[in-house]
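Kindly review this protein for my students:
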Amino acid sequence: MLSIVLLGTGNVAHHLFDAFSNKDGIQVIQVFGRNPDSLLSFASKSETTATSKAILDADVYIIAVSDDAISEVSKLLKNRKGLVVHTSGSIPKNSIKTKRKGVFYPLQTFTNGKKVDFTGIPICIEAETNNDVTLLKELATTISESVYKVSSAQREKLHLAAVFVNNFTNHMYAIGHQVCQKEELPFDLLKPLIKETADKLRFLSPEDAQTGPAKRNDVLTMQKHLGILESPIHKKIYQLISESIKENNEEKL
């Protein structure tokens, strides 16, 4: 039985807690958080503590806190024998200040109240010894079918790619939503298009799936779109992305 202590009470901690619950061979024995109120949602399912000296001994300590707090929180575990990992996409493994250290990075966006199926979520692992890599692989495969050994340097670039395909893409949705709202059009009109765009990537590369006025070099349509947009920053975004699409297309020719 692998014992886990979760350090953190945010979205990632909640989703990992739910994912590990009722899994054979895994037990979350404790959740640590500095704010006692934030521990209330865990209290009925696991032991909790807001006191660092009361943290239990465990096989694995998973630090699921904001990036700038990882190093400081890891210092609370300096004398522990268990493996200490964080869940960040952009922070190096060596930010953890313990002898045994690693990374357990689930590559997914997590939102409070929105459940996710961990089975298909890629989990990127990293550790300093083969034994600890094996331990993390054993832990990861209890909740996911996609486990990858990824270095800190690779993970940093992967996180950058994730920002483009997730955070930036979602902001494009937000701009589209604003355009629709201004014309009193339901955003639902665009949802089938969003779905088809994502579905195509199961069969095509993003470059091969690209369509639109910039791909066609339809200057007239792009000028019309720029005339419709009122926000200077939205105009700039439209121009920059269109230029990037055209440049990408030219490189393929």
